[in-house]
Each structure stands twice: as structure tokens, then as C-alpha cells.
Amino acid sequence: MSLTPMEIPDDIDGPPFLLVFESDELGIYLSIVFACLFTKTNIVIMCLIIYGFSKIYVNYKKRSMAGFYIHYPYRWGIVPLNKYFKNGSIMEYKE
Q1: Model pTM?
Q2: CA within 13 Å, CB half, 91
């Protein structure tokens, strides 16, 4: 094995695409559509809600590092980090 430089794509840890949507966006859009259909919301209002959410969420994703949504559950304390560190929200180690 040689130590030659290797090109690593920027989006290697990003979510997979389905048509023109990333998989994390598609789930939220479908949730909004189903919620609006079950509450019998007007289709124009539903489209405005999806457009507004997409502007906010995509802007937030651009400001964050790739894969940020994977690390948030243990950062917020929803799930444990591992069996040794139960609190994943500790940002630095102190002796």
C-alpha cells in the first residue's frame, strides 16, 4: 500500500438523494403533506408551508457541517453516546 494522495468527495457522509430531495428533507416534506391532507388544509397553504420549511431547513443545513443530524440525538441527551459515556453533551474532558 503506497502513500499516494487520494481525493475524497465533500459529500461522502451526506444523506442519499431520492430524485431531487435529500433523504432527510423528503421525510419532513411527506410528513407535512400527510398532516395537511388529514387536516384538510388547502393545497396552496400546504405548498407555502413546504416552501417556507425548505427555505429555513436548507439554509440551516448550509450553515452546519455535513452529517450534523446524526450527532444531535446524543448531543441533546436523547440517546447515550456509548456504554462508557452516558452523557453525550459533554463538550470537553476535564481530569
Answers
A1: 0.52
A2: 2
